[in-house]
Amino acid sequence: MTSLITETTFTPDTTQQVLANVCCQAGLDPAGAILLRHQTNAVYLVPSSQIVVKIARPAERPEDLNRTLALVRWMVSRGILTVPPSHHEQPLESAGCLATFWPYIPQQDQPRVTAGDLGEPLKALHTLTSALDLPPLDIIDGIRASIAASRILDQAEKQFLTGYSDDVMADMALVRYELPTGLIHEDPQHHNALRMQQGTALIDWDGACIGPREWDLVTIEIHCRRFFSDPQEYSQFVEAYGIDIRDWSGYDTFRDLRELRMITTNARKSAPGSPSANEVHARIAQLQRGEGGPLWNRL
């Protein structure tokens, strides 16, 4: 395949071609490949080798993926439970997209990962001091870029989200952190974790960076509140980690910022008229009405 994939042409049809190409480079047989997820990345299982191929969007740079691979290998060396990259040469490139390779960890016979399961691995992560040169947490630039790049937002929605982001950033000047800044996952949540023989493992380290640990804790609180109706889901996390982020003075501001980040990121990734676009519009409408409690549909 010679034509480069763009953000708008990053679809299952095009990433299947990328999969075939990178599998050929890696000596894998892509026959019968199963699409596991197609949102932030395109994630395929290659059954013949029990390898997961993760195809990044075209904006990702080789240095970004190399940094992620190095971080995961370093964490494994420090005793952090996670899934290490496979032995294949990586990342590999096709049509402007980069691919990495990971051992497949079956989950079919496992109970779902709960928020309580995330407490101990996240607490262990937050004790580490990274020896790698990681970027700082992107607080606002990614939000503004996503608003500008979205193909599904109308002008009124863009104006509202831009004004909302300006208001939240003004509030950020008053935030006082209580936890030390350091290595964070950036998106710890139920779908970024797996059950392994040794326990629950955090995975998907693409966004790992240096930032306030409060960001990770607010992320989990939001996922519990927005995707689970049982308040025990979050209570179990608090018991395991030892901190209820809702007690922090900066919680409201960080909650608003993190939810805005989730909405705008999905606004950038969603195609016009798609179910995910409909969900983004619904979330924006909730935000406009000031509704912090209604459940969201998972994308």
UniProtKB/TrEMBL annotation:
Gene Ontology terms, MF aspect: transferase activity
- InterPro entries per record: Aminoglycoside_PTrfase, Kinase-like_dom_sf
Keywords from the named record: Transferase
UniProt cross-references to Pfam families, sorted A to Z: APH
Does Oxidoreductase count among this protein's keywords? Answer: no
Q: Which domain of life is it from?
A: Bacteria
All residue ranges annotated as the Aminoglycoside phosphotransferase domain in the record? 39-251
Name under which the protein is recorded: Aminoglycoside phosphotransferase family protein
Species per Swiss-Prot/TrEMBL record: Kribbella qitaiheensis
